[in-house]
Amino acid sequence: MDPRTPWQALTRGDYLRGGWPWRSAGYLASGVLVGLPLLAVLLLLAVFSLVLVGLPPLLLLGVALGGAERRRLRLVDTEPAADPHRTPDEPGLPAWLRLRLREQATWRELAYALLHGCVLWPLELLALAVALGGPLALLATPALLALDGQEVRVLKGPLVTTYPGACAAALCGLLLLPALLYGLGALAGARAALARMLLAPRDAELRRRIGEVTRSRARLVAAFEAERRRIERDLHDGAQQRLVALTMTLGLARLDAPPGPLADRLAQAHDQAGRVLTELRELIHGIHPQVLTDYGLDAALTDAADRSAVPVDTDIELPRLPPPVESAAYFAVCEALANTGRHSGASRVRLTARHTGTLLRMEVRDDGTGGADPSGGTGLTGLADRIAVLDGRLTITSPTGGPTVLRVEIPCRPLCG
Amino acid sequence: MPTPLRIVLAEDSVLLREGLTGLLLRFGHEVVAAVGDAAAMRGAVAEHDPDIVVTDVRMPPGFQDEGLRAAVALRAERPALPVLVLSQYVQRAYAAELLESGDGTGVGYLLKDRIGQVEEFVDALARVAAGGTVVDPEVVRHLLRRHRDPLAALTPREREVLALVAEGHSNGAIARRLVVSEAAVGKHIGNILGKLDLPPAGDTHRRVLAVLAFLRA
Q: Which residues have CB under 8 Å from A137's CB, separation 6+?
């Protein structure tokens, strides 16, 4: 596995040969480049804005710097640091400001900005000077001696006048460089850890975000379900009624038409309209079966078993359950039955569905050849997601040679009555 | 031309309501009230005391199965009132619930597609009005595709006969369809009733029970 941070890289033998010393140096050097103007801006804001308009410009600076620093962090940390801020519920700058003011992350970013602008970047500059500047000066001693011709002061210290002395100094530099590069890596690692601590989301912030994602997923599934019902209703109340009226008109016309080519054409049109009506009815049933709404999962599953291409033995005993549960469970079983018909080569399927206590359990077991790949079709994956939204589980076991067993478990309470 | 019937029609789609009224009129029947929701239907029945009620399953205000609910309630109040329910759903649960209301005679469950088969529809209407039990052939076809008990004990010929019984045909009509004698049809029906383990009762009622067993299986 590749190291994620300089610290991890330090523990490996090939640290010096890899890019990590240079990435560490780059991180510290760019920190200096950010730090210097930052200090200037901080001073400017401290003098003017704080007196005139208060905190907002300073907070803005903190938030902006936080974003930039999280990106810069990727130089020495391959795992991106997530944005700890929330998205405002309403558009506009005032809402954004109000939200940022309430967030702990904003204040951590401000603290980071002050820390970096006033303390950290000078330290980084010093570290770079020692770790890179020192050895480079030592290495350059022979060259400097040649330029000067007389004498060279090594690092403002001992005086070197001979070439053997100068070469010894260069040798020292060569030996010192690797050790100092290790130190540089350690420092960059510490610096990155500090940045991550202040700028990355805390556990509570992550948990809150997961909560938001879970809720929004549930909302999506509910919206998807509502949309299906709306489409079903529109087709049922619109196109289907008109088609029934059309077949009725054609049927009456056939009664009146004298035998001949016209009557034959009418008969054809009548048959075609009838077939369209049948197809439309099946289509509507596939979108959202009304029997599920009117009679519940028990009757809908029995109906699905009736329609299956492979004979199904049923053992179903269910009370009425909450609509989202009934819907997710129904479509999971339909998909399983359809897959059995398509792939398994099964001659018989057993469908069991029971509700005990607070758990709905369903099992679809076939006597086919097995070897089904649950990740293959998007159908079942989507259904597993839908069931997961309800805190349920969908599992498939399908060893080669069979049988394929699909189990669905959804925690739920029966509706009263 | 069959005996003219006085009909209460409940259908929320104006297009279909007008169309059906015209169709029934053409065959000599009289639509005494054409209404758009279940409550109005019950009011119209109380007012006009019709020979038969024809109603849609799905109606306002909830657009679920209000029409069927009202039909079942009507049957509980007036067991002798024939009711024909028109539906878009092939599912047998609807038909079974309807047949279980009252004593199962004088009820019909037809798909709306059937309206297009004008003569078939008017014929079914007359049979229901005369106290027959009619289940849409499409629903029956779906049922016959099943491979489950207790119908597994029936021979293919007996299943065929039971399907025709469910569609509401008389023994004579079944005999003509299958090109056998009426006595043979009677014998098949006797066998079916025996195999389905139905309690002894009047012939009409046992036929209804057989159809119900078919729907509920």
A: A154, A155, A173
